[in-house]
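Box S2. Input/output pair 1.
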Amino acid sequence: DLEPWESKIMLYPHQVEWSADHSITKKADGIPHPLEPTEPLREECRHFLECVASNATPRTDGHEGLRVLRVLDKASRSLAPGQGNRGTALKVGPEPSSPRVYGAHDGVQIHETAYVDADVTIGEGTKIWHFSHILSDVEIGTQCNFGQNVVVGPRVRIGNTVKVQNNVSIYEGVTIEDGVFCGPSCVFTNVNNPRSEIARKSEYAETLVKRGATIGANATIVCGHTLGEYAFIAAGAVVASDVPDYALMAGVPARRIGWMSKAGARLGADLVCPLDGTKYQENGDGALVSS
């Protein structure tokens, strides 16, 4: 308060850089911020009376106060042991009705109610919606979309342009390639004979979902199998064996009941896609290939 008006408010553009696992603070000289010689409390009261008279929104309304409290709360939480590591998601952002931007790339949107652990890589354009949780050591590609209540990880790899609908858990041992669609409430497993009282993490079986495959709602993918490129798993099916490329699978256990094109159309006897005209043929191994 005793400083002259030209130096009452100073901005210090300090920077924090990371080297290995520790931070380095680079301090900068202060920059004076222009300030009109007025009485602050008088201006505050005047602005309040103007808002009352005109029904205008104050510069610092209740929403702004709530945002400040969120920042202070998250800053306090980040000081707790184990919470200050580089990469820990700090869920500070806009109101719950709008997504926020996470630091991986411009355009990555993570809803305020979602949580992203440390050591997660998220590609540009990916969106993660309400109440989802991305665990540590997960790699997610670009332009993906994760619906509500989705859990991914730990140690899961997901390609580009993958869509995961609501209520899906993708566990360790599952790898999903580009362009895969996971329907609502579809199920992945990673142990064949789970027991609550017996730890079997050493027995996780690898599951691979190849490029462009579609998994319908409420389908179950038993671990240890591969879903071929552009395979189509019908809703409610239980996949307990490897699935060929382009195969249309249905039933419990799932069996091939036809072929699907890359464009997502069921193929007839002529094996010509009715959507884009692509021709397919069965090879000598009973698999389908585009001709």
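Box S3. Input/output pair 2.
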Amino acid sequence: MKKINVMLLGLLLCFTLNSFAQQGYNKNYHLLYSGNLVVDKDFYLLTVITQTPAVTGILKSDKSLQRILEKHTSTIKRHVTDTCKTPVSLLTDFKWEKIDSLEIVKILKRLYELHPKEFDRMIDTQLRPSGYYERFIKLPDGEFYLKAWSQYIYGINYIIDQFGLGKKMRYPLIDSPNYVVTSRYYETVLKDIFASLDEETGRMKLFYQPSLQIALQLMQANDRDEPARFEPLEKGENKKPVEKIKATNWKKYPYAAIVIPGNGPPLTTTPISPDNKIHCDVAARRYLSGKAPFIITTGGYCYPFRGPYCEAVEMRRYLMQQYKIPANAIIIEPQARHTTTNIRNSNRLMIRYGIPINKPSLFITSKSQTDYSANEKFDARNLNELGYLPYRDKKQISNHEISFYPVMECLHMDPFDPLDP
């Protein structure tokens, strides 16, 4: 009997550990705040680490990681006075090249194996329930942790390539640096960045901080704070609709929400484009007929390059002025930069705000964009850029409507889109 009980206990323990390893987003989880919203949105792993003393202690005490830190802080100091001027000569050492990445992963794997309890606690109580690594939830904690680190590496390299080295990344028309990176002016800016960071090297205690600070400085130099704009939304711009969600009788509506994607104006003098007015007109008719209790306007500061208008904000203004739709019925999503992320980001807000995702929602847009979004080529684009489809059971209903269901993978942060991760 005692032997059977021991066996049952072992099986139960195994089941519990495996079940826990499958856990992902928890609606009751409260995201941590580091004091820098761009870091929180682009590199949530680092935000969690800095607020987990047991893990920071392990990373600080490792001699191999400390040598990497010393190498990078020494490079910062050297660039203050050396003759290096070009972005390539100044920034390349702060990218994580393949050999560096392999070394980092090897060290982090060793540290996890030596201290599984400390790392597992952080992973299971912070990283998994945050939703930021939702695509990794089926992995055991060790693999989950290394995958999260790989996202940091990809993200840092992407930022340095785009805003430091001037490489053309996914969408150069709207995501490029403000300045010609090979210009004399930008070279001066880069040297001054190193002089400024030199004063901060004494506070850098973790191996990843020099590269992180370089990346943040490059984004700041180009006024690229898009991930932090309007945040926290639920306490500001979206406070009223979030309160209304809690009292909504969802049975009264055939759809949970109406999503309107942005379509930026080509002119800096035009707050809302002709197509966006059409999007709003069609969506307003659906809302006023009782199709859904909420409209989500989605789109950031995209077109024209460095334009002054946020698509989501201008659409909300148009809906309120033209159709008297109340502010508590309109949720803004002011960060999406593409049709793929219009849907992904809207789904994120639905999930986090408690809008039911087992009920279909409507994607409302112009006929041209509806035809495009309903096409299989749009599915292929999502798979190529996001790695998954940010919807399920997509179905075109009319010239202006596509019904769909959100998927949990939408919560996953994207290291290849630092302006809207």
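Caption for Box S3: The CA atoms of residues 44 and 132 lie 7 Å apart. The beta strands are 258-261, 295-298, 330-333, 361-364, 392-396, 401-405.
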